[in-house]
Amino acid sequence: MNKLEVCEIFKSIQGESTLAGTLCSFVRLSGCNLSCTYCDTQYAQTESTPMIIDEVVEKIETHSTKIVEITGGEPLLQKPTPILCDIFLQKGYTVLVETNGSCDIAVISPKCKRIVDIKCPSSGMCGSFLESNYDQITSFDELKFVISDKNDFDWAKDLVFSRKLDQLTTVIFSPNLDKISPAQIAEWIVNSSVPVRFGIQLHKIIWGKKRGV
Ligand code: SF4
Q: Which domain holds residue 134?
């Protein structure tokens, strides 16, 4: 019960949330239930080392950071993930959990910042969002759309307006940098006045497609 399948643990600059730019430790857990067309962490599907929770916590504590992000793969597939989050909260960390939106976020303490994806059409996984998660989102959480083309943008924009997602919490539109320019997304946001925050994968701007950053 207290064993996690871990893909990698590293220290880097937070790249994909309202905390982008901050020093952050990452625990990337193995396995995912989706297969997005643009997945940049496919290695998390296959690479896995079993670690007990205490080992993971000890490793993170060597980093001397105040923020820890639990990501994947899909971290909510592993039963001990909520326990790991609670331990980090008790130790005074700001805890971020990056999830693909298809799993019940209620298992994670709302004291964590839950960064929840809503998959757009080009991901091939559109419709995977768990409807009940809309009721769980707090203003401390974040909703994130990865946009690859105009169809994705229009679909996401319509969802933001129709469900008033901006009244739930911060909504981030982030470009799939392999498919569309940041300037194009920015232009569409400005022209449509959709109430979202522009996001960008800051670590990819800094390091390109390097792994473990
Ligand atoms: S949810 Fe994330 S980890 Fe899973 S396939 Fe999609 S992009 Fe990759």
A: 3-207
